[in-house]
Amino acid sequence: MRTSIATVCLSGTLDQKLAAASEAGFDGVEIFEPDLIASPESPEAIRARADELGLSLDLYQPFRDFEGVGPDLLEHNLRRAGAKFSLMNRLGIETMLLCSNVGTARSGDEQLAATQLRELGELAERFGVRVAYEALAWGRFVDDYEQAARIVRLADHPRIGVCLDSFHILSRGHDPQAIETIPADKIFFVQLADAPILSMDVLSWSRHHRLFPGEGGFDLAAFMGHLVRTGYDGPISLEIFNDTFRQSDAASTAVDARRSLRLLEDETRAWLGRSSRGRTEQMTARPLPVVEPPADINYVELRTDAIDEMRTLLAQLGFAAHGRHRTKSVELWSQGAARMVLGRPETQPPPPTVAGIGLSVSNPDAALRRATDLFAPEIHRPEGPGDESLVGVRAPDGSEVFFGLEGSTEPKWVREFPVPDQPGAELVERVDHINLAQPWQHFDAGVLFFHSVLDLRSQPSMEVAAPVGLVRSQVLRAADGVVRIALNLVPSGAHDDAILPQHIAFASTDVLALARQARERGFHPLDIPANYYDDIEARYDIEASLLAELKELNVMYDRDEAGEFLHFYTQAIGTVFLEVVERRDGYEGYGALNAPVRLAAQYQQRRDAEGVPA
Ligand SMILES: O=C(O)c1ccc(O)c(O)c1
Ligand SMILES: [Mg+2]
Questions:
Q1: I need a surface site. Which of 23, 285, 503, 609 has the fewest CB within 10 A?
Q2: Helix, strand or coil, per DSSP, at residue 233
Q3: Is the pLDDT of residue 334 over 60?
Q4: Total structural domains within the chain
Q5: Which domain holds residue 76?
Q6: How far is the CA of 60 from the centre of ligand 2 (A)?
Q7: 287 belongs to a structural domain
Q8: Which residue's alpha carbon is at the smallest distance from atom 11 of ligand 1?
C-alpha cells in the first residue's frame, strides 16, 4: 500500500512538513495549495526538495467551484485551471483534486457538469495532467460520491476520474459498498480520514474534527476493503483537518499518522480475510503480530519527589512495604496483586508522575514486536546482574509501557525486592483502572497508541465539567474488561494542570472496611460535600444506614443496571492521587456522575492547601 499525507495535516512551513512526512516514512504527500502559495521556494525547488527526501508529490489540491456554471464563468474557470496545470507541470505533479462546486454552480444537471468536466479533461490532456473529482459532503448540487462517479462516467474522458474521500462518504452515512461499482482506472485518488461521531453541521465537522484512522468512529476497514476489491492500487492518503494537529509538533503527528495507516492496513487485511472476495495482495506490509489484550496491570510506577507522603498514603491504605530494589533506586509496595513501584524522577525532562505501567501478556516478545512495528519507540533499561529484563515501549505522553509474562503467580521481578516485614491488609485485590491525564496535543495519539498497540477498545468518550474547564475522558478497555485505561484531556486553558492529576484506582472487596481501617491509620480522604449525599439520596433512595456510612467516610456511590459502585479518593499528592473502588454485582462504569463533584472537591482542596480564601 502506497502511503501519502496531505500537507494540511501538519504544522509548520512547507519544508518542515515535507521533512516530517519523509522522516515518518511516508511514500508521498499531497500539496495543499495554501502551503505552496505561502512558500518562499519556487515550484522547481520544492520538487527538488521532495526528490531529495524521497517523497513523491501525489496530488495538488484543492481546485474549487468549476462545474455547473454558466458559459462566462466556465471560460474564466478554464483559464484558472490552465494556470494551475502549468504550475503542476513545474512541480511535476500529475493529479489535481477538484472539489464539487459549493458556490457558483447554477444547475445540478449532471450532463452539463459532465460536458464541462470533459472540456477540463481536454485542457488537462494538453498539460499531461489529470483531474480527480471529489464530491464534498456539502457540495451545492453534488454531495455524494456515486453522483460524482456518474458525472465522471458521463464525461467519459481519460483525464477525468474521481477522488474518494472517506470523510465525505461516511459522514453522510453513505454506503461505501458502491465503491465496488466504480472501475479502478476511474479512481484517480483516495483520501482517508476518521472522525468522532458528532452531531453538527458537516462542514465544521470536516474542517475542525477529522482524525487519523483508528482515533474516531468510522468503519474505515470496510471502506478500504471495498476499495481494494476494485483493484485500485494508487496512494492511500491521509487528509486530516484538525485544529490540534495544526498546532502540535509535525514530527510526532507524522508518526501518529503512519501508525494509523499501519494499523488500518492490518485491519483491512483482516476485513478482506473475513469477506468472500478478499484480495489482499495490495496489503504489502507484513501482518502485525497478533496479540491478546493484556490480562492485567501488574504494576504501576510512580515517580515523585513527594515520596514520603506517598509512602504514608500507601501504608494507610494497607499496602505492604517491600523496601528498595536490590540494584535500582526504586521501592515496591504491594497489596493483593496491586503493586506500586515508587521512585524519584531521575530523567530530564521529568517523566509523568505515572511514569510506567507493567502489563501481563501471553507473549511479551510478540507484544513488543507489534508495538515497534507500529512505530512505538522501544525502551532499553539498564539491568543489574540476574535482574529480569524488562521489554517495553514509550507512549505518546512520555510514559513507559512494559510487557511481562502473564501467569497465575506473582511476576518474577518481585523477588528482586525484599520480602515485606508485615503483610498487606488484603482488602485491595488489584489495580482496577488507571487514569492518565494527556497533554491536550497528545490525547488522540494516546487513544490510537493504546488501541493499536494493546488491542484495547475505545468506549464512547465523555465530557466532565471541572472548575477549570471541560475534561474529555475516554476509557480504553480489554474485551474481558480487566485492563482499563482512561485517558483524560487536560483543557488547553487549564494552566494549573495539577487540578487534573493522574490517578490509580484499586479494586477492593470491601471499600467501607478499607476506608475505616485507613482512617484508624490516620488517613484523611478527599472531602465530599454534604450536598452530594442529599443528591444521591434523592436519586437512588439509598438505605439510611448506608447513606450515613458513605457520608461519614466520604465514600461516593453510583448504580447501573447491573449493580452498585462504591469508591473514595485520596487527597492529591502533587499531580497524582489514588482511588479505591468496589464493584458490586458486575457494575461496569466509573461513577461518571460523581466526576464533576470529585473535580470540584480537588479544586477546593488545592485552594485550601494554598490558603486561598473560599
Ligand atoms: O474543506 C474543504 O474545502 C476541502 C477541500 C479539499 C478536500 O479534499 C476536502 O476533503 C475538503
Ligand atoms: Mg478530501
A1: 609
A2: coil
A3: yes
A4: 2
A5: 3-274
A6: 11
A7: no
A8: 136
Q: 291 in a domain, yes or no?
A: no
pLDDT, tens only, 360-415: 999 999 999 999 999 999 998 878 888 888 899 999 989 999 999 988 778 989 99
The answer to whether 116 is a known ligand-binding residue is no
Which tens digit of pLDDT belongs to each residue from 404-421? 998 877 898 999 999 999
**Domain at 437, CATH number:** 3.10.180.10
Share of the chain above pLDDT 90, in %: 83
176 and 215 housed in the same domain: yes
166 in contact with ligand 1, CB cutoff 6 A = no
Same domain, 232 and 330: no
Grid coordinates belonging to 117: 468536466
**CA 60 to centroid of ligand 1, rounded, Å:** 12
Do 483 and 430 belong to one domain?
yes
Whether residue 433 is annotated as binding a ligand: the answer is yes
Q: Does the C-beta of 207 come closer than 6 Å to ligand 1? A: yes
Confirm whether 279 is domain-assigned. no
HSE-CB for 109 with a 13 A CA cutoff:
9
- Residue 388 annotated as part of some ligand binding site: no
* DSSP 8-state class, residue 51: H
Mutate to test the pocket of ligand 1, among 8, 206, 208 (most ligand atoms within 8 A of CB): 206
**Which helix (DSSP H) or strand (DSSP E) does residue 151 occupy?**
helix 145-155
Query: CA–CA separation, 294 vs 483, rounded Å?
Result: 7
61 lines ligand 1 (CB under 6 A): yes
Q: Is 331 in the pocket of ligand 1 (CB under 6 A)?
A: no
Torsion angle of alpha carbons 185, 187, 188, 193, nearest 10°? -150
The ipTM estimated for the assembled molecules is 0.99
Ligand 1 atom closest to the CA of 6, numbered from 1:
8
Is residue 161 a part of any domain in this protein? yes
Q: Is the CB of 143 under 6 A from ligand 1?
A: no
Q: Which atom of ligand 1 is nearest to the CA of 61?
A: 6
**Domain check: are 391 and 304 in the same one?**
yes
Is 165 near ligand 1, meaning CB less than 6 Å away? yes
Distance CA 508, CA 285 (A): 44
Residues 575 and 438 reside in one and the same domain? yes
- Please count the CA atoms within 13 angstroms of the CA of 327 that sit on its side-chain side: 12
User: Does residue 352 sit in the same domain as residue 458?
Assistant: yes
Spatial separation of the C-alpha atoms in residues 426 and 323, rounded to whole Å: 18
Classified as helix, coil or strand, 453 is helix
Q: Is 139 in the pocket of ligand 1 (CB under 6 A)?
A: no
Are both 221 and 342 inside the same structural domain? no
- pTM listed for this prediction: 0.93
